Amino acid sequence: MNGQYASLLIALPLISAFFVPVFKGIGKNAVRYFLILVTALQTGIAAWVFKEVYTTGQPIIVIAGGWKPPVGINLYIGHFAALFVLIIAVVSLFMAVFSISAVKTEPIDKYAMLFLLLMLGATGMIATGDIFNLFVFMEITAISAYALTAYNKTGEAAEASMKYIILGGIGSSFFLIGVALIYGSLGTLNMAQIAQLAATMNPTVAQVGLALIIFGLAVEAEIFPLNAWAPDAYQAAPHPITVMFSAFVVKAALYAMARLIYLMSDVGSWNSVLRMLIIMATLTVVVAELAALRQKNVKRMIAYSSIAQVGLIALAFALGTQAGVDAGVFHMINHAVVKALLFLAVGYVAITLGGAEVENFKGLGKKMPRTAFAISIGAIATVGIPLFNVFWSKVRIILATIDVGYTWAAVLVLSASVVEAVYYFRLLHTIWFEGEGEKINESFVIGLMMLFLAALVVVIGVYPDYVWELARKAGEDIFNVTQYVKNVPLMGVGA
Amino acid sequence: MISVYYFGAIALILIGLYAILIKRNLLKILVGLSIMETGVNLLLISIGYVSGKSAPILSEGIGPSQAVDPIPQALVLTAIVIGVATTAMALSVAILIYEKYGTLNVEEIRRLRG
C-alpha cells in the first residue's frame, strides 16, 4: 500500500473531532462510543504503519501537497515515530474505554474533542519533520492539555490549569525565540536541512538557540525547574487524561528534545548544551523523588515518581552516545506501560472509593484485590526489581551514564531510586497489611486492561530482548542523523 | 547585522517576563504573557526584514528579488493565532478561578501545595 496513507494518522483525529457534535445529537453515550471507534481506527492505522516501517526497514515520508521539502512540509515516520505512534494510539484506545466509567462531568462532547486533539498533537509532534510544525503541534497539545486540566471545574483544577498555562506560555515563547534564531542563521525550518547546515552555524547562536528550545520543551517534558505545574495538573485532571499526560504527552516533548539535540550535533558548542541538560535531568530525578516521599495523595505521589522517571530518560538522551539514546527509548516504552497501569489502577480506585488519598488505600488488598494486585505490579516494576521491565532499562541507563564518565550523575540517580523504593513499599504496606474491608465488585473491562498491561510488564521483564531490539532500532533513528538526512528527499534549493 | 528592531523585540520580551514574575494580579500576569508573545513575534518578523525592500506581494515592479523573506511573516500569523487561543483559554480559566476563590491575587490561590 501507499505510504502516503500514513497522513491519516494526523487527519483522522482532526476530522473526527469536528464530527463529535453530530454524534452528540444522537445521544450522550454515542459520543463515548464514537471516541472508542476513532481511537480503535487510529490504532489500526498505527499498527499498519508500524508493520510497514519495521518490515521494510525504510521510513515513511509523507510529503504534504506534493511539494518536496524544504519548500513543502513533510512528515517523517521512521522507526521511532512508528513505534510511538502505535503506543499513543493503544493508550488512547484504553483511555477512551476507561473514560466511559471515569468521566461523568458534563459536557462530554467537549471532553471527546479535546481528547482527540491531545492525541493528535502528540502524534504530530512525533511525526513531523519541520520545526515550526513541531511548534504548532506542541501548542495544539498544550492548549488541549490546559483545557483538559481545568475540565473538572473545581477550584483545584482551575488553579492547576492556570499554573500550566503561565509556564507553558513562557515555554512556548522561548521555543519560538529558539526557532527564530535557527531560522535567522540557517534560513530553513526543515529538520533534515538544519542537520545538513548545522556545521555552518555560529556556535554561540546555535548554543543559545538550542538552549532556548530545550527550555521551551522542558515545560512539556517536565524537567526541573520548569515542572512545577505537573504534579498539580496530574492530580486535578480527569483520570484518563492523567494517564495520557504521563504515557505520551511528556514522551512526545522528550523525543522532540532529543531529536533537535542530535540534529544539531555538528554545532561547535554542542557539548556544553548536553552538560546543561545532564545537570537539569539529574536534579529532576533527585528533587522529584524527595518530593514524592512526603505526599499524602497517591495520585500526586505517582505523578512525582513519573517526573523522576522522565528525568532519567532525559539524562539518557543527554549522554550523547548511541547506548544512552537506546537505553532512553527503552525506558520510554517501559515507563509508558508501567505508568499507564499505575494511573489507570489508582484512577479506578479513586472513582470507586471517592478519592486518591492514602486513607482510601487502607485495606485495598481485601476490598479490590485485582486492582491492588495491578498497583503492586506497577509499583514493584517502577522501583526496578529484576524480572520486571523497568529494571532492564534502568540498568542500561546507569551503565551508559558511567561509560561516558558521569559517575556523579549515576550515583545521585541510584540513591534517588532508594528513596523511590521507600515510598512505593510504604504504599504496598498500606494496601496489603493495613485496614479491613468488604470485597467490592470490580469492573471486568478495566480489570482486563489492567491484566493486559501487567502481563506486558512481566513479559518484557522476563524476555526483554524483543522490545530491546525495537528500542535499539528506534534509538538509532534518533542518533543516526546522517541516515535521517539521506532519507528525506531534499530539493536542491536554499543553503 | 544587528538591527535596532532586535532591541525593541528583546525589550518587549523582558518587560513581559518581568510582569509575569513580579506581578501579583492574575490579569496583569496574563497581560505580561501577551506582551512577551508580541515581543517574540516582533523578533520573528525582524529576522525576515531586509532594509529597503517591499512586502512579499508580487505586483508591478516588485519581483522576488525586491521583496523581503515571506516565511517569517507566515510564521508570525500562525504564532499570533496560537497566542490568541492561549490568551482566551487563560482568561476563561481566570474567570473560573475568580468564581471559586473570590480573588485574583496569586498569593491567595494556593490550595494545591507540596
Automatic annotation (TrEMBL), chain B:
**Does the record bear Manganese in its keywords?**
no
- Chain ranges passing through the membrane: 6-22, 29-51, 71-98
Q: How does it sit in the membrane?
A: Multi-pass membrane protein
Subcellular location(s): the record lists: Cell membrane
Record keywords: Cell membrane, Membrane, Transmembrane, Transmembrane helix
Q: Which Gene3D superfamilies match?
A: 1.10.287.3510
Any one GO CC term of the record? plasma membrane
The protein here is known as Cation:proton antiporter
- Origin species, per record, is Thermococcus piezophilus
Write the lineage as a comma-separated list.
Archaea, Methanobacteriati, Methanobacteriota, Thermococci, Thermococcales
